[in-house]
Amino acid sequence: MNAKTKKSQGFARSRCPVANTLDIVGDKWSLLVVRDLLHGKQTYKELAESPEGIPTSILADRLKRLEEGGIITSAAYQERPVRYAYTLTEKGKALGEVLLAIVRWGKKYVPGTQTFK
Prior knowledge:
By secondary structure, this protein is mainly α. It has helices at residues 3-8, 17-25, 30-38, 44-48, 56-68, 90-93, 95-109; strands at residues 72-78, 83-88. It has a two-stranded antiparallel sheet with strand order 1-2. The longest helix has 15 residues, at 95-109.
């Protein structure tokens, strides 16, 4: 199948579910944003204060990409300046299972890791 055929079917690279999922959440930061939203963070400021120290320009980009991917939604909670609260969609909440698998793997195979409540 050539690139033109793939593009016409709506897939950037292939029909592979791993590749297509990684196109949405497969960077260094996206799943950490999902993790924080699962733990109750909602605002840009709260997300920016995570211990991993995501740069604000990257955070803004990831929030936009996650919203475009149907993982999160945003709603303005303040008018001047406009500020948004972010929530996970059902599609986004379903990533919780993926994160739990990563947590189990990390605790087993990455010495010194721990979970925080």
